[in-house]
Structures are given as C-alpha cells and as structure tokens.
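Sat 14:20. Reprocessing the chain from the morning session after the first attempt stalled halfway. Input below, unchanged.
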Amino acid sequence: MDSKVITDVEMINLLCEKRGAKIISFESNTSVRLLKTWNRGEVRKISVINGFIGWDYENSVNNQRDRENILSDFNAEKNSAGTRVAGTPFLRNEKTNNNLLWIKVQRVLDNPCYMLDQKKIDESEFEDFLPAKSTSSRQGVEDQIIPRAYGFRNIVSITYKKNKYVIIHPYALDKKDENDQRAKTIAALIKKHEKIPAQV
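Finished this time. Tokens:
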C-alpha cells in the first residue's frame, strides 16, 4: 500500500469531514507507564490497532448487552480521559492540554514492539514494573467493549478508506511552551468541527 505524508491539521480535517462511526487502522508510539522503581529510562510501545472512531461508548455497550440478551440499561460514567468534542472522534483534556483520539478497539494487528534508548527491548525485562491492571467492569457483558484514548500526537500513521497517511506532528523536543501552544492550536481546530446536536 502506498502512503501519503500529511500534516496533523490535514488529518484532523479528514477524520472530521463526516459524522458517524468509521473504521481505521493506526500505528501509535506511546510511553509505557511503569512503577517509579523502574530506573532505566522511558520505554516506548509501538502498536498497530484496528478500530472504530466516531462511535458512542454507551450505545456500543447497550448494543452488546442486547446481543447477549441482557437488559440494555447501561449508563456511561464521566470519561476520565477527557471531554468529547461533539460530532468529532476527539476528546479534549484541558487539565493536561491533550487532544485524544477516542477509539473502540477491534483488533491488535501486530505484536507490540517495545523500545528503550532506540533499541528493542523484550517485555519480560520490565513486566515486573507494570502497574496492576484493573479487571473490574460495569459493562456486564462477556464480550467486552474496549475503549481507548490515544494522544493524537502519539499516532504515527492512520489507514483510512484504503489509504495510509503518515502524519507530521510539528512538536519540538525540550520546547514545552511551543508544544503547549501547538496543542491549544490543534484543540481550537478540532473545536471548529464541533457539531452540537439540535435540541428537540
């Protein structure tokens, strides 16, 4: 598959051009959260994920409850990751100044790759330093809905409508003020795509 280099602004405009659920695949490069006792530096995780954007968490859980013949009375709690920008696939977290892509994960397409100091590292080397995962869920279903919020600047590429887009994120290392301003600029762009549902 051929790929096209695209700016973060162009990618946002493309993803927001139409409302509703869309299937995408994407590559992400994220920081692995480890216990403070880990002292060998930042571990990065490179993943390739397939899933839906522009979806509704509460509706998805209730649809799954219907499929499993369970009363569809699930009510979603406030999303701790951020606030949904209506009519877009994005969340905004003002406290952390983060813009996040809200994903319903369908499949992990490849085994994740872990990097430390730009060299591959096996998960076994740091697995004892991973925080305990919560296994509790309010969904009440066997086939769990998997929601994830990915920082948009951590998404390397997106495959959408059979086209692969490699995204340029113009953030600078060690320039916090510039990066904070860039994040706010991106937030303002996403906000322009906001579509508030009409009151009935």
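The mean pLDDT is 93.
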